[in-house]
Amino acid sequence: MDEKERRSRALQQIVQHVGKVKILFKWSSAFENLIGTILSQNTNDHNSRRAFQTLKKNIRVDPSSLAEASVKSIKDSIRSAGLYNIKAPRIKTIAEHVRNTYPDGLETLLIQSDDEVRDNLKRFQGIGDKTIDVFLAFAGGRDILPVDTHVRRIATRLGFAPRNAEYREIRKSLEEATPTSMRRDAHLALLRFGRTICTAKSPKCHQCPVKELCPSRRDL
Fold first, then answer.
1. What pTM did the predictor assign?
2. Which of 68, 110, 146, 149 is deepest in the core (most CB within 10 A)?
3. If you average pLDDT over residues 137-149, what whole number do you get?
4. pLDDT per residue as tens digits for the range 168-219
5. Cβ atoms of 31 and 106 closer than 8 Å
6. Residue of 20, 130, 204, 211 marked active site
7. Which residues contact 185 (CB under 8 A, 6 or more apart)?
8. How many helices, marked H, and strands, marked E, lie in the chain?
9. Could you give all domains of the chain from N- to C-terminal order, each with its CATH number?
């Protein structure tokens, strides 16, 4: 078995082991998806969803409402997501930019190519590669495998890329090993796998369905 085949087999076995991951929280607009993804940065799903729901209840999650809201009111609404002193002014600035630049909604941005969407979103402070890829995959339905902390950890342990690899290198390596049209499902499966089996501390190597394919199993 060559290296390419080993990686592909390991990834497919993880996806099969985890099974179809149901998305429990759905956004009603591309803008909601973007704000929800920002709130999820450096926190868990429970806290980010709680913050989103509170924000929606107190202010509403649309460009005009958030652009007109005070930073303090946004902070007070998103405290459960953590880093609210950083996220709140960013959310307000993004809302102002979207209101002024995309009056018909961020859905108009998604008409553009992946690279064009990336170039436009990178102009927003606080939006990086992972946030953009989540937006493209789940708001735009693009065939992309976003790389978060869990996905990066699994990818480096399985030898898809070195630990100091850049984001795009890891994404490319994972996507090359994933059948087209299955990359979003693979992303969700890797998230679940990273939270339950291949955890940051004390990974459950004895329960791992790909331990025979993992070059890091004896080092953990």
1. 0.91
2. 146
3. 94
4. 999 999 999 998 889 999 999 999 999 999 999 999 999 999 999 999 886 5
5. yes
6. 130
7. 15, 20, 21
8. 11, 0
9. 3-22+146-219 (1.10.1670.10), 30-139 (1.10.340.30)
